[in-house]
Structures are given as C-alpha cells and as structure tokens.
Specification:
6-stranded antiparallel sheet
C-alpha cells in the first residue's frame, strides 16, 4: 500500500507551478496509474482557435509523471509519442489517464488517453516511456 | 515569396493565447522552418523542480505549428514523438527549431530540436508529422 | 459484415512475399483488429543473439496493415512508435495484436502489442497511425 | 580510435542471421554512426505490392543497432518512432543512415533516414532511443 505516497503526489501536483499555470486538476493516483483533468479554455487556444497541441500533451504528461512515480522510485521521462484524434470541443472538460502496461527494473511504459469527460470522445493517445532511476522518492 | 504570410504567422503566434500563457517568443518563420524561444522559468517547473516536459513539448509544438503552416496550406498535427535529453538549466533561454525533412501533397514531416541558447546543449528532440488539408490559410 | 474481405486479407497475408520470408502466420482479421503470429527462431537473431528489433516490428506491422485495411478502404502507414519491453525467449511463439482505438475519415490509430503466447509476457508495444486514402480495396 | 571494434561490428552484421534473411549490407560503421543498404526486392513486398514497412524499419534498425553500439558499450533499443515518406521504387537500392544526436551515460538518441541511393529520395525517417547498459561489448 502506497496511499501515503499517492496522496503526497496528488498534493504536489496541485501545487506544481506548471500545473497551476494550465489549471491541471489531478483526479486520481494509484499504483501505476493516474488521471488528470483540464478544461479546454480560451487560454489554451492556438493561432487557429483550437486547443493547442502542447496543452493536450501537457495534460497527458502530468498523468504520465504521476503514474510513473507512483511506485515510490524516482522516474524520469525518456520519450513520448502522441497521436491526435479529434480537436476537443471549446470549453469541454478533458481527462487524461495514464496506465502502466510494462515495467522492468530500469524502464516502464504507459498508455495514455485523453477523452472529453462528457462525451467520452477520444482526443489524443500517447505511448510514454520512463527511466526508473532506482532512487527512492523523498519529498 | 511568402514573406507576407510568414510575417502574419509570427504576429499571430505572438498574440496566441497559449503562447502568451507560456511566454513563447517566435524568433523566425521561413519556408518549412520556424524557431521559437522560451525561458525555463519557475512557472514551468514540475513536482521535482525541473522544467515540465509539457512545457518543452509546447515550445517544440509551436515551432512545428508555424513551420507546417508556412507554405500557406492549412496543416494540422497528426503525431509527434519527443525524446528528452538533458534537463535545462533553471532560468536558461531555450530555442526550439522545426525543420521540414519531407513533404508530400497530404503530409509533411519535421525534425525539431530544443537547445539552450547560451550553451547549445540539446534538451530534447522530436519528429513531427502534419496532415496538409489542402485548404489555403485565410486569417 | 465484411467476412469476405477479412478472409481475403488473411489469404493475401499468407501469400505475401515478406510474410513468407519471416514465416508470419495471420491468426485473425476482424473489423479494426488483427492478430499475427511468428516464432522467435534462430533466423531472426541479431548480432547479440537476441530476436532482431526489425523482426518484432515486422510482426506488429503485419497486424497493423491488416487491421487498418479491415474496413475495406485502402489505408497506408504514416507513422509507428514502438517501445521494447523484454527480449523474447529463444524459440518462443509470439503474437502481435493490433486494435483500433480511433478512426476518422482520413486517419486511424492502433494500439499494438506483442506477447509470448505461452507466458503472456509483453515483448513490445506500439502505437500506429494510418492514412485512409478513401479508395475501396480491390484485389 | 575504435576501428577494431567498428570492423568487428561490420563483420558481425554481415554474418547476422536476420541481416542475411533480408540481405542487409552494412556500408559503414563509425563513432556514433552507421549506414546499411538493402535492395527493394520482390521478396520484401506486402499484400499491396509495395515494400513492407517492416523491411524498411529493419533496415533502419540495423543501422541504429550498429551506431548505438559503436562506442564499445553494449546498448539496447528502448523505442523507435518511424515516419514513412514515399514508397520506394521497385528494385531500387536503399540506404539507411543512423546519426547520433545525443548521448548521456545511460541513453543515446539517433536520427535515422532511409533514402533511395540513386535518386536521394527520402523513403522514411526515424528517431531511435537506446539504453546504454554500461557493459563493455565482448564478442
């Protein structure tokens, strides 16, 4: 049981400077998994008026960061591949979920999906790879 | 010559809501290329005090967006693969450059790199694929 | 119902030159999905005696090719990101499965996994993106 | 100077079972770089008569394998993202080149390109990430 760690990761995520800038709201942190929400606001628009790809990626990356560190061993991102589906509806609430699909001593892999919460429409998917440093997380 | 378009893309990038949120500064837009700068400020930090992967990706994505639309045909992102190198030094100025390496009627591919401007140290690289809609860009 | 098409795709896969070279055996083709098997033989070894990454990718790519064409509209590969987990046991039977996770008029996205059939151990995962040409498949 | 190692990597590549199956011909191995050639023969065709994506990937992967091991430290593939450009002309000679763009103690990143040798036309590009085990290569 790592509920203490998971609670602390949530708390850190809510206080994270970058997360506050984008108004990310951590929803869940479990063993090898995490879910984070973000609203597709005006502030996140690109030059064509759609939600910026960087904002969608950031939402995924926050979920990935939390999931990959949920075992208590410090993990750092090595690579992420994102594929975009449909542009989200303006103003819609989005949820990214990262799910661990593989873990070795040194690396772990996550499948990540962003959906519109209301319609369950898929907005983007990603595959993310982390390096597990072997160091225990100490806040 | 598309200097009018390139100038307009720069102007739009500077006024873009998401770009303003992250304080992205477009540096150059040319035929199939673009460069964008961002400072690794406190606001962009993740829960471990490093620059958030989402911020680095966003910098790359802005350069990709500008480069892929620099031909005057509306392009949308299909997929991006990012690989992280070294974490940027706190406070350092970063520059992302997107360079077109392939273009067909329907798709185009970009190599993107983020470097620290002062040290030229490589922070991240990405390969990005755009779908070219065939529609002329009209602002 | 596209059982005629799916049967024909299977038949073509079994007769495919490259598939015969690697001894790929299509296992299943359904709407948006496909499974293909391959044995990790001596012939597929790399310079260090492990199964070559190109062979694992080829197995995935065959499943992706069949799944992306299973709707009867000609699809071509745009990009694939593969992440390697554990090296397969020498001589083991491997199965790649491609599952459609998103589809628009122009593109479709697949999650692909390779497992050892006997142990269900995950060997590699991939995310694959296809361009849907709009042309009906005619053999 | 690692010319002894580079010569040995070439020799091993030429004797590699999988390389022989696809008729891969190593062209060059240098510090952080490698080039490998393959002809787009009938044997490599997919169900639609084009060169199989798995064959193109395998060519890239062989160059990546050699480049990532060219420093004398055993490296294993972590992830590769490939983007396809134009289908190669039937019968054409193809060359994949892997170039190191980043290296840390634990990982290294390569840009890979496949071109038709005669026309210099770009067929595919990839970004590849290796894990450096720290073990000295001993054949």
């Amino acid at each position: 049981m790592k509920t203490g760690l998971h609670h602390e990761l949530k708390r850190r995520s809510l206080e994270e400077p970058y997360g506050r800038l984008l108004d990310l709201a951590v929803w869940e942190v479990g063993e090898g998994t995490a879910a984070v929400r973000m609203r597709a606001t005006e502030d996140l628009k690109n030059i064509f008026g759609s939600t910026h790809g960087g904002a969608l990626f950031s939402l995924i990356d926050e979920a990935f960061q939390l999931a990959s560190n949920s075992h208590g061993i410090l993990a750092v991102a090595l690579s992420v591949s994102i594929t975009y589906g449909a542009a989200p509806t303006a103003g819609s609430l989005l949820e990214a979920r990262a799910t661990e699909i593989h873990k070795t001593k040194r690396t772990s892999t996550y499948l990540c999906e962003v959906q519109e919460v209301e319609t369950r429409r898929l907005v983007a998917t990603a595959q993310a790879l982390a390096y597990r440093t072997g160091k225990t997380i100490e806040f």
